[in-house]
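Per reviewer request, we include the raw input and output of the structure prediction for the construct analysed in the revised manuscript.
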Amino acid sequence: MAAMQIDVEKHLQRKQSLYQSLGEKFQIEKETYRGQQYSQIYFARLHTMRAIIYSLIPNWKPHLPVCTVLGLEEGKECIIVGTLYKHMKLKPCILDEYSKERSVVPLVKPHNFMHSNDSLVLEDESGRVKLGGTVLLPSVYVTGIVVGLHGKETSAGEFLVLDILDADLPPQIELPLKSREDKYVVFVSGLSVGSSTCNPLQFQLLVDHITGHLGDEKEQGIAAQIVHVVISGNSVVVPRGLLNGQNLTSKDQSSLSEPIKELDILLTQIAAGLPLDIMPGPDDPANFALPQQPLHRCLFPGTSAYNSFRSCTNPHSFELENISFLGTSGQNVDDLEKYSEAKDKLEFMERTLRWRHLAPTAPNTLDTQNGRGRCYPFTDRDPLLIESCPHVYFVGNQDKYETRLIKGSEGQVVRLICIPKFCETGVAVVLNMRNLECHALSFGTEFSS
């Protein structure tokens, strides 16, 4: 009798990674709203950032005196520190929106609100002064940034700017790159489950690849090195037209819940195999105001059964093996694109790091053109300030995949990543934690007629 030959299946062990959440400052559970306005968050921002700017002045221009706006003298060169305000002719106004609702002729909303007559003003507790000169470009800066300016007051009452001092990249914990092994983090955004553009098979291919159910032994070996998945916003599309305050029929209730159920089924497959973070986005069933609070776990009964699943805030900050990650679902960069200009989205991202603020346009303009919330009116702090420089900075729901490595004057190294909308591009992003190199992971489906 011939001996039976038994094929022993090779079992791949998924690599693990030490995770630490750093998003406590984005939670508003302990905050109490008492009708406060946004002046306090601007004051907290100015107070914190002014101390940083003051600490940089001795190495910048120590020979110049530091003045307040009220203490300016005509023709005398000095340094002033304050918050920029941008006068914009095309900036949306809620009163204009009210009148437009009664206008017979519909008005087209521009993609960008820049105008050649835009101007900048700097203000502190003592007053405000209009800024002049060609050094400070209105096309680059937006309302809410705290800067130091070298210049002098003119006879016209303007402050002629001769030089600018930004806060620049914050301090960064040194990145230990030696003796590391390949471990990957997968970023995906804009799944938009339930929308007309969503391809369930495309997302299933991504899930199968991450969980190691796709490809040959080599592909599965690479999948076993994926240690974390981050979903950065706009995961589901709920038909908001049904939410009109009327009683819902059973059919309408099903239309509302089906996309979330479908998303839960897909996320359960990921969470069963490896850690998963999900962030809310502007289209998700969460609060509109930044920082957006975690999606309620009751939305994901299947996925929530696994302790590898974490519902997180937007913005989201965490560490994997002492590599720090910071990211948003894209609202901050999308808003900067409406009120300033840059060559690409990565430049907007770099500016927010150098200004040390995730969303400087909040609460002034962030998402007001959609009638949505701005940011929570904190009274004693601004959680959107960037205190420590991340090693990886990502934004979700962008039109295309882009990445760049930037370096700071004190040795900081940051990997910038624009994560494209998966439902439109079929592209996820994979980051190698060993060297901060990243690449796009593209999925597509084709049906023959």
